[in-house]
Amino acid sequence: MTDFDGRTVLLTGAAGGLGADVTCAFAGHGARVIAVDIDAAKIAALASRAAAAGPGRVDIERLDLSQSEFVARRVAALAEACGGIDVVINNAAIYPSKPFDAYTLAEWDAVQRVNVTAAVACVQGALPAMRRKGFGRIINVASITWYGGWANLAPYVASKGAMVALTRAWAREFGPDGITANCIAPGAFPTDAEKIHPDPEGYARFVLEHQSVKRRGRAQDIAGAMLFFAAAASGFITGQTLNVDGGWVMQ
Ligand SMILES: NC(=O)c1ccc[n+]([C@@H]2O[C@H](COP(=O)([O-])OP(=O)(O)OC[C@H]3O[C@@H](n4cnc5c(N)ncnc54)[C@H](O)[C@@H]3O)[C@@H](O)[C@H]2O)c1
Fold first, then answer.
1. For position 194, what pLDDT does the model report?
2. Residue to probe by mutation, ligand 1, list 91, 167, 197, most atoms within 8 Å of CB
3. What's the pLDDT score for residue 1?
4. Number of Cβ atoms within 10 Å of the Cβ of 216
5. Does 2 map to a domain?
């Protein structure tokens, strides 16, 4: 018997730099993970890793999260088929970077659709079964960019602010149903998300200067925080945002 035996976890962006480790961590703790991603190459890599990640299991679901209506219907169908989704982790994001006046409105909308509206759709799809069970864990992923200090990322930063706000709104609204909502704000992790920086070595130095802990973040650092929020024992913690950033932002 493991902590997440019998629990179903829906994880978006599951094949990404952070998501793949999170997928394997939950499967390693006995969960059934519905691993949602769009990228065929990353999905193939995740599938081979996930095969060895038991004792839980990983079901890969190739979905385009920008198709909001379809996502809500599909997640509702998955929840019905699985006997309910216990944990929803809204982790997928896109992060185009350029000066604010260079973004088109269509680009702005595309970021909000993947980073925010997809989370709304996933939660709407999973909520009825969570309410019936009287148990649910929602974990949103924001970013320390939300606290300020990063230029040229306005649509992304705004989307992360929305995830913090949704965390609080959902915590308040779903608390009476035994459903918690918490948020993780990662610092700087060396995944694809970091490749937007023109000078990778300079950026790595900048990161280490700002962190209290003088090593780069690892995907397992994020997985550990997610396992914590998802645990049954964390039921008295809701509406919170936890910075997992090596002691960079302290608020
Ligand atoms: N890596 C960092 O330094 C960092 C810092 C702060 C916040 N974050 C946040 O952590 C989360 C994970 O980031 P990551 O570093 O693993 O990035 P990543 O780019 O490696 O992973 C994101 C995943 O989302 C998937 N995705 C994108 N659009 C999609 C769509 N339309 N449908 C389905 N899937 C889609 C991608 O295929 C990818 O696998 C994101 O929310 C990101 O904003 C990361």
1. 81
2. 91
3. 47
4. 16
5. no
Instruction: Give residue ranges with CB within 6 A of ligand 1.
Output: 13, 15-19, 37-39, 42, 63-66, 91-95, 114, 141, 143, 186, 188-189, 191-194
Is the residue at 90 inside a domain?
A: yes
pLDDT surpasses 60 at 188: yes
Assess whether 147 carries a catalytic annotation: no
CA-atom Rg of the chain in angstroms: 17
Residue 35, H or E segment? strand 32-37
Number of separate domains in the chain: 1
Q: Residue 161 belongs to a domain with what CATH number? A: 3.40.50.720
Chain segment 55-70, per-residue pLDDT in tens: 999 999 999 999 999 9
Q: How far is the CA of 95 from the centre of ligand 1 (A)?
A: 8
Does residue 247 belong to any structural domain of this protein? no
Ligand 1 mean position to 101 CA, how many Å?
Answer: 24
Tell me the residue range of the domain where 165 lies: 8-240
d(CA 80, CA 63): 17
Q: Which residues pair with 61 in a beta bridge?
A: 36
